Structure formats: structure tokens, C-alpha cells
Amino acid sequence: MKRLVLFVPLILFMVLGAFLYKGLFLNPKAMPSALEGQPMPEFKLLTVKQGDRVVTKSDLKGDYYLLNVWATWCGGCKVEHPYLLDIARSGVPIYGVNYKDSLENASQWLQSYKDPYQFSVFDVNGELGLNLGVYGAPETFVVDHKGIIRLRYAGIVDTNAWRVKLKPLIDQIKREIAQEKTS
Amino acid sequence: MRILLILMASLMIMLSHQALASSVETYQFSNPDYEVRFQELNKILRCPKCQNQNLADSNSMISQDLRREVHRLMEEGRSDEQIMEFMVMRYGDFVLYKPKVDSVTYFLWYGPIGFGVLGLLILMVIVMRQRKKRVLVSSEEERGEHLSEKEQQALDKILANNDR
Lengths: 183, 164
Description:
The complex is a heterodimer of chains A (about 180) and B (about 160). With about 180 residues, chain A is α/β, with parallel strands linked by helices.
């Protein structure tokens, strides 16, 4: 018994070491989103391309959709753009939130790089961005058939992010929809 | 030498003013108390984009927005708690420099106290044991009972062997 007590410091050290070792590989920038599991916030804003048209939350149609926060001042958005075009082509509706940008730059961008969005909300003051808890661009939200935000992905949606994070979630939402229809 | 010092000092003052002017927008407050509360809130709210700066300290776009929002909410007559709640709803607990006390953070808040108490307990046990031992030894000394008769004989024998 006495002998075993001698091992207590070693065990404590190993437990502490394990925790600290794990800490080495944590991403300090990864921030849990407060909005996951919350309904998509309300808004009433203009769009980038459609002049006077005012859009609200009810204009975001589809069983599920992606909401992509982008801006022309954002370098990552340019990298992400071709991937978004691919995703839109595969049949997933994407809505854009043009975040704190100028209308001229934004429409120019959509013209020269093609437009993957159903429409882009023109959020020049970042009001919708604020209610979404956006703190930079690009950020992508997955919203399900009940209008609940299921995922907030901060960063570039490339093939890897799509395969590992977004696609599985969308498949799951599809399954949930199918289940609810049958029951 | 003196002139140089004065020059340097005035340069520093100029530069520091510039730094201040660039990071803080001016806001009008309808109530002088608001300004104090505004400064306080900007100190305890953390910039979501930055790793370790508060709103007052950061000049990032998001901090400017959030400062504007704090000002707006304050002018609407919201309390500090409501404003913090508003921020937490959108940006999570990350925006609070001082973590809330809840089931996730109990360990964080009370862990150090727990460790302190545990340490004291261990220390107490060790001290008590030592004291008990000392009392035992001293009482043996008083009674002159260091060794039993048998032990004394054994010792004598060893000593006698050594002498030879």
C-alpha cells in the first residue's frame, strides 16, 4: 500500500501531461458558434443584383440551403468561389450574404467570376452579419428544413471541407426530411 | 541634450495621440453615465476576431461594429447585462473575458480553491504524523525505554564483537 502511494505523483504527472499534450493540437482560433441549433435570424435587406427587391428570411427557400458570407475585400472568398460554383451546380441552393462591401464591387465580382448564389443579400452595414455572429469572411452556414442553423463553418469551403463537414450534414438533413415524410 | 529630450518627449506625445485617435471613434452619449459604462463594457468584452484583445483595444472591423452596437444598445436603454447577453447570443461565451459560472466552468472557478484545500489537508496530515512520532519518541526517552531488554543484550553483544 505504501509503495502504491509513491506512484501517485507519477500518475498525476501523466494525467497533467496528457492534458497538456492534447492542448498542443487544439486550434485556439476555433470558436464554438453560439448560433448552431438556433433559428436563422430575421432580416430585411436589398440584394446585390436585383435593384429594388427587398428580401427577407422567407425568401430563403429550399428544404435546406447554404448561406455563404462573402465580400470582395476577402481573399479567401476568391479561393472559395470555384468550389461554390461546383456545389451550386450539384443542386444545393446557396444564398449569399455580401458582407460590408460596395454594391459596385460586388456586382462586378459576380459578373466576372460567375454567380453561384440564388441571390446575394446586400448587407453593407453588417447587420445580418452581426445577428449571425459573423466576425469575418468567408463563413458558411448550413440551414435545415426547419430553418435551424445546423453548422457554421468559418473558413474556405474547399473540396475537403465539403466532403468532411458540409456534405455529410446535408445528407443527414435529407435523411431527416425523408424520415419525417414517412412517419 | 535637454533640447533632445524635450523633442523626444513631444514626439512620443504626438505619436501616442495619433494611436489613440485612430482606434477610438467618438460617440455622443445622451447621459454622461453611459460613457463610463461604455468604456467599462468595451474593456470586458472580447473582440471575436482577435485572440487576446478587448473591444476597446482592437481596431478590427468587427470591433468597430461591436462598439457601435454597444453604443446603440446603451442609448436604447438596455442594461449592461442585457448588452452582454446580446453579445453572447451571437458570439458565444468567447466574447466575455470573465467566464460565466456554470456547470462547464465550475472546475475553472473552484478548481484552484479545491487544490488549495487538498494541499492544506495533505500538509496537515503530514504535520500531525510527524508530531505524533515526536511525542512517541520523547515519551520513550522519558521512560528510558529505548530498547527492550532483549534488544539491549543483542546490542551489547554486537558492541562486544566490535571491540575485539
